[in-house]
Design brief:
By secondary structure, this protein is an alpha/beta fold. Helix content is 42%, strand content 14%. Strands 3-2-1-4-5-6 form a six-stranded parallel beta sheet, sandwiched between helices. Strands 11-10-9-12-13-14 form a six-stranded parallel beta sheet, with helices on both faces. Strands 7-8 form a two-stranded parallel ribbon.
Length: 437
């Protein structure tokens, strides 16, 4: 098939690249001329494991193209995917100006039956609004389909190529048949194509992410309760996670969730509920718990240093909101940086992928280290904000020699308590006993 993807951000680039991998000719369109120039020259603009290999292969084979020209990009396309930003407004609602703007531009350009697919995460009713915008500018037949993405950063290629399910919202038999053909190579192992109406598909994405965010916040509340009751959150997690009705995933306590999806989607669903005068009490609690949890360790740091963090140096391990990505949107590390700097502390940070992004955001207010050992050199304590795999099994003898004091504030519960006792570290974590070395 001939496919166009409008938007070359995270979702758009993964979508376009993966569709080209199954033999489709894909043209990706973006208004950023510098980005398009880089992409056409074979330089990938996001970090996502496994994507670069597919990207380079399909550019070389001429199946993956990039342009700034919307008219040229959609020429002869059977399907046009809209993979555009929907940033939260001040009231929490999703801002649809990019999607509706492109929809308005598309109308006069259509000259044959085309399926327009909302790939972005959008509020219920967006497909109707997109349809109205396009219809105002054309008499050509078209269909609007809702096909929300369920890509996890760090494993997005795997998620796209072997999806657990594909949700497709359409009331058109013609569009359904074409979408079935498009996705057939991705569901050969029997994972379902789940067809529904457009509004249900739009709500499904918000419901899924909000439910996962709820699991995280619930477990963080349990962790906080464990600290007060003298229980161990790891034991509780294992005890409930083996129940098949609950499952093992998204039960790890820590310093909250971040990224581009969970915060935005929970906020948007809460706003959509408010707009129809429904008080979605659980979501309000989820957002508040997460906001509080992000800086959960700061009061414990202040207590340990008796309120005086001036001239204390912290080795901050991890800046991205999760491992295997360079995405720092709503990353807990950023909130903790601000709190520590406000108290007069100094920060030496290391992250395998996201240091340049942080530097562009906050500049030289902190130091950036080439390795996590370098960050620890001369530091008063380590603060772990992201659970990168290389942080899990460090050389503790090397760390002991590098640090001024053997103190770790662990926001991701990476280490075994008994091991910390044996090594003589003072160790703070989430929902577990504090170890004093």
């Amino acid at each position: 098939m001939k496919i166009a993807v409008v938007g070359t951000g995270y979702v758009g680039l993964v979508t376009g690249t993966c569709f080209s991998e199954t033999g489709n000719t894909v043209t990706c369109i973006d208004i950023d001329a510098d980005k398009v120039k880089k992409l056409n020259s074979g330089k990938i603009t996001i970090y996502e494991p496994g994507l670069e290999l597919l990207f380079e292969r399909n550019i070389k084979q001429g199946r993956l193209l990039f342009t700034t020209d919307l008219k040229e990009g959609i020429k002869d396309a059977q399907i046009i995917f809209l993979a555009l930003p929907t940033p939260p407004g001040e009231d929490g609602s999703a801002d649809l100006k990019y999607i509706l703007g492109v929809a308005q531009d598309l109308g006069p350009l259509l000259n044959h039956y085309t399926i327009i697919v909302d790939k972005s995460t959008v509020p219920v009713g967006t497909a109707d609004r997109v349809r109205e915008k396009i219809a105002a500018g054309t008499s050509v037949e078209f269909d609007v389909v809702s096909n929300p993405e369920f890509l996890r950063e760090g494993v997005a290629v795997e998620d796209f190529m072997r999806p657990e399910r594909v949700v497709i919202g359409t009331s058109s038999p013609r569009a359904r048949k074409i979408m079935e053909t498009l996705y057939a190579p991705f569901v050969r192992q029997g994972n379902p194509l789940v067809f529904m109406d457009e509004r249900s598909a739009e709500l499904t994405k918000y419901a899924a992410n909000s439910f996962l965010a709820t699991k995280i916040s619930f477990m963080n509340e349990i962790a906080n309760l464990c600290e007060l009751l003298g229980a161990d959150v790891d034991a509780v997690r294992k005890g409930i996670g083996t129940d098949s009705r609950i499952g093992k995933r998204f039960l790890f306590p820590g310093i909250g969730y971040g990224g581009s999806c969970f915060p935005k989607d929970v906020q948007a669903l809460a706003k959509s509920s408010s707009d129809v005068r429904y008080d979605f009490k659980i979501l309000e609690a989820v957002m508040q718990v997460n906001a509080d949890q992000k800086t959960k360790l700061i009061p414990r740091i202040k207590d340990y240093y008796r309120g005086d963090l001036k001239n204390k140096t912290f080795a901050l391990w991890g800046l991205s909101f999760k491992p295997h990505t360079d995405d720092i949107r709503e990353a807990p590390a950023l909130y903790n940086i601000e709190e520590l700097l406000k108290e007069g502390a100094q920060i030496k940070a290391h992250d395998p992928e996201s240091m340049e992004n942080v530097k562009r955001l906050i500049g030289d207010r902190i130091q950036y280290s080439e390795s996590f050992y370098e960050a620890a050199e001369g530091a008063d304590a380590i603060f772990i904000a992201t659970e990168w795999p290389e942080f899990r099994t460090p050389d503790f003898d090397k760390l002991s020699a590098a640090l001024k004091n053997k103190v770790i504030f662990d926001g991701r519960n990476l280490y075994d308590l008994e091991q910390m006792k044996e090594l003589g570290f003072t160790y703070f974590s989430i929902g577990r006993e504090t170890i004093y070395g």
